Every structure is written in C-alpha cells, then in structure tokens.
Amino acid sequence: MESNRLISSNKNYSQILNAKTIVIKIGSSILIDPKKNILKNKWLNSLLDEIAFLKKNGKNIIIVSSGSIALGKSVLKLTSSNLRLDDSQAYAAIGQIKLAQSYDLILKKYNIHTAQVLLTSDDSQNRRRYLNIRSTFQSLLKMEVIPIVNENDTVATEEIKFGDNDRLAAQVALITEANLLILLSDIDGLYEKDPNINPNTKHLPLIKEVTKNMLKMASHTNSENSKGGMVTKLDAAKIAMNGGCEMIIANGLYNFPISKFSCENGKYTRFLPKDDVKTLRKQWILSIKTKGKLLIDQGAIKALINHKSLLPAGVIKSFGNFERGDAVEIISNDNEKIGQGLSGYSNFEVQKIKGCKTNEIREKLGHPGRVALIHTDDLVLI
C-alpha cells in the first residue's frame, strides 16, 4: 500500500522504525462516527493495514482503544447522551464484544491474532497485579499476538466519569517497556493556546518537559463519546517521559493516520523521554494515581535531592484522603510537583506528626512509628 511505502521510506520520523515496542492509543472521537454511534470501518481498516505492516516488520504492537460505550449504545439503538453511571457501565459491557470482534476480524486478514486485555488504572497500583499484567503482555508479544487493551468500564467508575484512557495507555507503555507511545486524537498535537478559540496560535512540535504553564493552558474538551482532553494527554506525557518512553500526539482523523503524520510535512508533537530512565519499581510508582499531596519545606527538598527519605519533620501540610501505602504527590511551597512516593502513614496520622522530630512520633501517635514518612526506595523525584 502507498501508506506502507511512506512509513518504510520516511526519514522525517525514524523513531517509528527504530522502536521495538509501540503502544497506539485510539480515541473515541476518531474511532466512532458521532452522528451514528458506529465504527468508522474504512478508517479502522486503513489504520490496521498500517499496524499490520509494522507488525510484519518486527514491531511489537499494543493497541489501547476507546469506544465501547458508544458501540454499546449503537447495538441497542440508543441516541440519548445523558446516561446514568450504571447504564454507561452496562453499555460498555455490550460494546466491548463488538469492539474486540472488529479488531480481530480485520487483523485476521493479515494472519495476525489478537487478545483482549481489560484493565483499569487501579490495576497498576498493586505491585503483584502489576507484575502479573507485565508477564501476560510479555507472553502475548512473544506469541506475536496484538493485545487490544480496553478499560474495564464495568468496574472503573472514575474512568467513565473523567476519561483516563490516555493515562492508561501511558501505564501500558511503562508496563511493557515500550519505546514509543502514539496518541491518535482529533488534534495534531500541542499548541500554545486552544486552536479552536485561537486559530492562529503556535503549534509546538517538540516538548522536552511538561511545564506548569502547559498544564494551565491545556483545556478540557468533552464530546458525547470522548472524555478528557489535552490535560489527560499531558498527564500521559509526564508518565511516559519519566519512564523513558517517547510519546506523540497526532491527528488520527485521516485515513492511514500513521503515514499521514509521519510524512515529510506531517504535523504532530513529540514528547522526548528523560535520560535518567527509572528502575521498573520507580516506573511503577510514577504510574500510580495519587490520592493526596504532601507540602514539604526547603530542608526536606534538599534531603530528597541527596537521596534521603522524607521524614515527618519536613512536612508542612498534607492534603487528600490517603492510607498507608497509597501514592502521594510531593510538592513545594509554590505548588510545584517535585516527586511522588508511597506514604508510610495515612493522612490522619500525618496530620498528627507533620513537623515532628523522630523522637516525638510515639507521643503523637500513641505507639512507635516509622522513622520515614516516605522511604527513599519508595520515592521518585520528577
């Protein structure tokens, strides 16, 4: 196909050719016809033709796909967009079957087998489950199978409400140690301002760090079938970059979208991975959704930079509803995130011991406590 020649000869984006494992996330806004709530079959065939080409050329491919709720609505001929949460979960269960069948039927033409993997972001928070998931992916890729990953919407209530497939795709990239994550969406990358409001705004082709200004600029955009927006994509970028995986945001509305954005004049945004790739455990810690924040003082920041643990004495305030073992953000006085770690105490306990010296912890809690609020082995600096 013409698209395959473009991919194979393209010099503009050699990272596709160099990557061993590629995660491709497909958003509902490009997969589903918003008026009919049906799959865009011609578009999907064109993308899977490209994916089959990459697979035949030795790439490990993992697809993270949205669209199950919209397809469930289509099966039952539902047109209403105002669904109760339990209804959304039920439609997701119906749509999952149709979605998996669609991928499988098309890829069978290329003698490529698929497997369905249902995950939520919570699955990566338990270390044992994380390792089991990684082993499953490793086995599937070794068998030359393409995993089709969907959110398990029947239990992932928060994901249905807010949309977190971008973050889930980044977690899958870290779990599988992917070299490249491609987010196919209805926009061709990151801009200085919202291009829907400011059509002349500047496109940003290369990002080395996701800044606070970028997060502030990013706007939430919700369509009937697509949840989330640029904010979730930037969250995904931070996860991928910190884990050593390059990420791309590209416009997937066109047929043969990979060829389209990777051609000489293609427009997309690259997010470059950090040089100091974390260990697998550190990657796992970074991938966990945080449940609170710890505001720490300058002395504690210096200690963390010197690879020390976070002690209660360095904590000024704590926020959120977290328990022992939950992931929390570590922030500075100007609300800048400087790290993430697993808390050795609940927020209820932190409220009692924040600012305390080690020999004061027993008196505050009524029992001997741990010296470190977050041990250095359970902490990652951003």
Question: Would you kindly provide a written description of the structure presented here, covering whatever features stand out?
Answer:
With 382 residues, this protein is of the alpha/beta class. The protein contains 16 helices and 17 strands. It has an eight-stranded mixed sheet, sandwiched between helices. The chain has a five-stranded mixed sheet with strand order 14-13-15-16-17, sandwiched between helices. Strands 2-3 form a two-stranded antiparallel sheet. Helix 5 (68-75) crosses helix 6 and helix 9 (165-175) packs parallel to helix 11 (230-242). It starts with a helix and ends with a strand.
Short description:
By secondary structure, the chain is α/β, with parallel strands linked by helices.
Write the layout of secondary structure elements.
Elements: H1 2-9, H2 15-18, E1 21-26, H3 28-31, E2 32-33, E3 38-39, H4 41-56, E4 60-65, H5 68-75, H6 85-108, E5 114-119, H7 127-142, E6 146-151, H8 157-162, H9 165-175, E7 180-185, E8 190-191, E9 203-204, E10 206-207, H10 212-217, H11 230-242, E11 246-251, H12 257-262, E12 268-271, H13 280-287, E13 292-296, H14 298-305, E14 315-320, E15 327-331, E16 337-342, H15 347-353, H16 361-365, E17 379-381
Helix pairs in contact: 5-6, 9-11, 9-13
